[in-house]
Amino acid sequence: MNIPGKTERTGPVLFSGYKRGEAITKALSLSREDILFELKDSKLKGRGGAGFPTSTKWMLVAAAKGDKKYVICNADEGEPGTFKDRVLLMEYPELVFDGMVIAGYTMGASLGIVYLRGEYEYILKSLEDYLEEMRKDNLLGNNILGKGINFDIQIVLGSGAYVCGEETALIESLEGNRGEARNRPPYPVNTGFNGKPTSVNNVETFAAVCKIILNGGKWYCTFGTDKSTGSKLFSVSGDCEKPGVYELHWGAKISEVLDLVGAKHTKAVQVGGASGICIPKSQFNRTLAYEDASTGGSIIIFNESRNMIDVLKNFMEFFVEESCGQCTPCRIGNSKLLEGVELIEKGEFTFNYINKLKDLGRTMQVSAKCGLGQSSPNSFISILENFKDEVLNKSNGGRNGR
Amino acid sequence: MLTAEKNAMVEEIELLVAKYGKDRSALLSILHEIQKRYRYISEYAQQEVARMLDIHPVEVYSFISFFAFLNSEPKGRNLVRICKTISCDMVGKSAIVKTIERELGVEIGGTTKDNKFTVEYANCLGLCDQGPVMAINDRVYVKLTPEKAVKLLSEVK
């Protein structure tokens, strides 16, 4: 494997050093309620991008009735430009798995499932070896650390479907069905995997839980902003000198990130991957936070040499391929948006039609069944609005978003 | 397929069912292993899996058709997947693809005449900071140049 080995990373929270089992030992000495209150104090929100409060999700599962409960780690990291979960799983499995054990204890689940995307199969062996070591250390399995808690983790490989990162689609595929999102409610917290209460959390969320248990929710709130507490891993790629994974406080300005990674002559930044929004130079003072430019961590940088219509076409092609096809807004909508992009590319569009397509995009945002179709028009709308001079007014001396 | 081969396959599927369970939720893992072993999931294998899990064969086929990594038709002996998503696209994915197409005499999506390679595009392989990226079977290769890509392919048996 020619992937570079463990590099020394530093960061305020997750990349600040951790010894396997530390947080489990601490957590098992606390009551379940104490853990939930600590999480509530931390104001931790889901790190996959949707930002649902973790304490609420866990409380619902803990309170739900069921003879079995499940903890699922969503490692189906498929958003273009996102690779932080790969780094966490390869270099910091202790944080992720310890977080899962704590989740299992807190919610009364006995099985954790890591849904690892098929593209990351090469990590599987090392993760399984790692779990075996945890079992030897009595951090996993029966009667963990002699506290009478039983919890085990198994890893299931996905098979190359972006939509399976959506939690209900993920659960469907685990149950042996096509990975098509379910109607909600009922929510997985009540009716999840095999109809049992299930908590689906992002890889990074579990890692953050370990740090919160060790240092307390109040401590966690000292990082980030009031509404977006703690730190976030950002996967930075595109036109810059130092692409990679960075841990930053929530609330960092986009311009600060650009300086940090050595990005020059930047024209645009795509925040949140293909399903996110494209931000022009005039808005680089915006902050990365749930309340401003929200993201699951993907930051893609474009310099002045890039043609934004090429970028948009790449995104729309991605969605046309990855739409599961069960709901019409997403299946037809994405194809129509892609056709619109191709018309613009050929210079055969009318403004009237493009405006209709933007309306279609807004309709998709409210009518698609799951997050895929609800967020796929984001890049279409934001690129056409923020870069209209370049994309639509070429002959009028467009300002190219400068 | 010879009867002996069929029987061997049935035995293997039986072992997989014993390992992952008879519940339908074992389907993803069972099919993944069959795919890995045979590089595709034949009609016969689909029927056997369906029989052992007590579901309709069409449901197995439907499942397979949903996932990019599962296929019901054989592909080449080695699967080459080149990431085409934006970050790899910006650092020269097209040059890699053109070179591979020329070198192997095959268009993207196709299989070489000797059945050695099937070349496909992949959506984001999650190595956006190290592109262009290519996967050969379940191994990934980063920071490719056209020359390096060809060298890697020539080392494949």
In short:
The complex is a heterodimer of chains A (402) and B (157). Chain A has helices at residues 22-28, 32-42, 54-63, 84-91, 93-107, 121-136, 167-174, 203-215, 217-221, 254-260, 308-322, 328-346, 351-367, 371-375, 377-386, 388-391; strands spanning 70-75, 111-116, 152-157, 198-202, 231-238, 244-249, 266-271, 277-280, 298-303.
Question: What does this molecule look like?
Answer:
The complex is a heterodimer of chains A (402) and B (157). Chain A is α/β, with parallel strands linked by helices and 402 residues long. Chain A has three domains: 22-221, 3-Layer(aba) Sandwich (Rossmann fold), CATH 3.40.50; 231-303, Ubiquitin-like (UB roll) (Roll); 308-396, Up-down Bundle (de novo design (two linked rop proteins)), CATH 1.20.1440. Chain A has helices at residues 22-28, 32-42, 54-63, 84-91, 93-107, 121-136, 167-174, 203-215, 217-221, 254-260, 308-322, 328-346, 351-367, 371-375, 377-386, 388-391, and strands spanning 70-75, 111-116, 152-157, 198-202, 231-238, 244-249, 266-271, 277-280, 298-303. In chain A, helix 2 (32-42) runs antiparallel to helix 3 and helix 4 (84-91) crosses helix 5 (93-107). The longest helix of chain A is centred in the last third of the chain and has 19 residues, at 328-346. With 157 residues, chain B is α+β, with helices and mostly antiparallel strands. Chain B has two domains: 3-66; 78-154, Glutaredoxin (3-Layer(aba) Sandwich), CATH 3.40.30. Helices cover 49% and strands 11% of the residues of chain B. Chain B contains seven helices and four strands; from the N terminus they run ααααβααβββα. In chain B, helix 1 packs antiparallel against helix 2. Chain B is elongated and about 50 Å long. The two termini of chain B are 24 Å apart. At the A-B interface, strand 5 and helix 11 of A face helix 2, helix 4, helix 5 and strand 4 of B.
